[in-house]
Amino acid sequence: MSKLLVIIGVSGNQGSSVAEALLVDLSWKSLQEVFKDANLVFGNTAFDAAPIIFPTEESVAKLKPGQTAGEFALDKELQQGKNIADAVASMGDSSELFMWSSLSDSKKWSGGKYPGIYHFDSKSVVVDYIKEEYPDLTAKMSLLQLGWFVTNWKLGRVAVPWEKQTDGSMILRIPGSGDWPWPIPIVQPADTGEFVKALIKLPPGTELLAYGELMTMTEYMNLWSKATGVRATLVCATVDDHDKLLPGWGREIGETYAYMQEFGYWGGKNVDNAFQRFGPRSQHYKKMLMLYLTSKLRDAVCPDEVGEAQLGLGERIAAVGDLELPLKLGAGEDYLPDDGGEWDDFKEFRRWFLE
Predict the structure, then answer these.
(1) pLDDT score at 239
(2) Domain hosting residue 313, numbered range
(3) If you count DSSP H runs as helices and E runs as strands, how many of each does the chain have, helices first?
(4) What is the C-alpha separation between 161 and 329, in angstroms, rounded?
(5) pTM of the predicted model, to two decimals?
(6) What's the number of domains the chain is made of?
(7) In a domain, 25, yes or no
(8) How many Cβ atoms from other residues are within 10 Å of residue 329's Cβ?
(9) What pLDDT does 132 receive?
């Protein structure tokens, strides 16, 4: 008798380990049963950067001759995506919409100039696989391309390379020429669900670029400076400079910054823009971006009673109306919510930024 295994927390360290161990045993069937009779499927995979950041004898032994850790991670995520696509394709007529969380094909759009942005390309190659193998599924597929997470600073200097100077000021050292002709689409990860809800309402074949605000790196830096009261300067660096922060992974992130600057985050593709299509007043998002330091922003500022017809943070704020931010500027001073308390996550950021 076949048995169904349910893993709670499959995206975590323990849950993913259980899933990977059991999926090696072909007698276990997983995704087909999970997707059975589903009408809507949202698919997403996780890029495993650990072998790049922390190579071990075990991880190095898994590499094919001449293969880099980044290429290995890409192949691993591609296989995960193929498994999802194969399972969804097997559903036949029961599926109405398959939503895939993708990113732009940086190697393609840069003409091969930036071949090492594996955490982008690992998602886009899944799209290529689906288009080649499953034309019927392709006709039902929509793509969600999330912008640059405002929470990336928590991943350390390789992700957002701030440097504190002896005079107490900060430098944001970013690879690129400094012109930044392409603004960066910045998104609060907690808004993903709202964008998926919007994608469900749109016809298959939609590719949605989801973000809360388009900002240049200069604007981004100025907001950090204003939020903390600490003077900051944007300095241009090279990909090689960035690689020195953490060899291997530093190069991948350095290429990502350079690619975003030169070719645009979405590679110049003709993608639908959530804010153009639905028209929320995104200038409110820029206000709230000064408070994005808290991961509890969604609950603290946008109560559920705003309504069902919501799209991301920008539209929810527009529905509430103009908000006067409880803001005190100056080094060491905090954002204060209405009850006079202090957001815990801002404490975390302020302590890191000032120390």
Answers:
(1) 95
(2) 37-354
(3) 17, 11
(4) 23
(5) 0.72
(6) 1
(7) no
(8) 11
(9) 96
